[in-house]
Specification:
Helix content: 10-25%
Low-confidence stretches: none
Mean pLDDT: 96
Number of strands: 15
CATH architecture of the largest domain: Alpha-Beta Complex
Shape: globular
Oligomer: single chain
Number of helices: 8
Strand content: 15-25%
Structural class: alpha/beta
Distance between the termini: 18 Å
Radius of gyration: 19 Å
CATH superfamily of the largest domain: Medium-chain alcohol dehydrogenases, catalytic domain
CATH topology of the largest domain: Quinone Oxidoreductase, Chain A, domain 1
CATH class of the largest domain: Alpha Beta
Number of domains: 2
Order of helices and strands: EHEEEEEEHHEHEHEEHEEHEHE
Amino acid sequence: MLLRHPREPLVMSDLPVPEAGPGQVRVRVTTCAVCRTDLHVVDGELPDPKLPLVPGHQIVGVTDDGRRLGIPWLGWTCGVCAYCTSGRENLCDKARFTGYTIDGGYADYAVADERFCFELPDAYDDEEAAPLLCAGLIGYRAFRMTGDARRIGFYGFGSAAQIVAQLARAEGREVFAFTRPGDSDGQQFARAMGARWAGASTDPSPEPLDAAILFAPVGPLVVAALQNLVKGGSVVCAGIHMSDIPSFPYELLWGERSIRSVANLTRADGIELFARAAKTRIVTERKLYPLEQLNEALSDLRSGELVGTAVIRIGD
């Protein structure tokens, strides 16, 4: 499926089978999970995508020599800049990204730099593993930034939140889920995934929060989260794009509260997450779509009608 111009539907296209270059692998794609970042690319909210573009960056596939690999968002870094040489390759200014500046996985075949691919736990089939490759990775990085917080608020409860909630509960932490007002299905889903409480994003938290993670790309939720935060707590913004944060009184930030963002991922994040996933069984709610219904899957995610994760089934 090809994006020719932002803010237009993707079109089914016949493309040549890509060839792997030096250091690359080619995979026959079996599944590719849908991410909100795909929406930001397709809807023109992220600038300067490769065009025409095959989106998709939560890819599971089989290499030409029969290995099963996962291909994530981070597709390449320079390896020599100050960020890359200090364990912060996620901040590399020259980084390239799967499904954004590199063709991705909404296709029969994809090519990737082998250094940035992951071996996947055998206990997870392809459909289970795909959401871990971005929702899981970015969610895990955001979760780590909450430190030892015991009561964590999740603003937006979708693909990433359902994964991180299970990791949090496995560590004995308490999850409080905040969804769109009136989203009873989303709140019920959050409780089923282990949330102690679920309500509307406009509701006050039933207990003060030690930290909050914003999965919804809605700037005013930063202010809402600060209002529920204890002194010394942090608000972690987990999205690559967010609407503007409105002004707010300094007293909400005072008391050594902090706001920080998560940018991309590192390969170390993937190694840690998949080691955790091998020990803590992560169960995801998924809705399967064939490749030709990718625009429908994106629309369902955009409208908020999707519960859990959309996964595109491409090959066997």
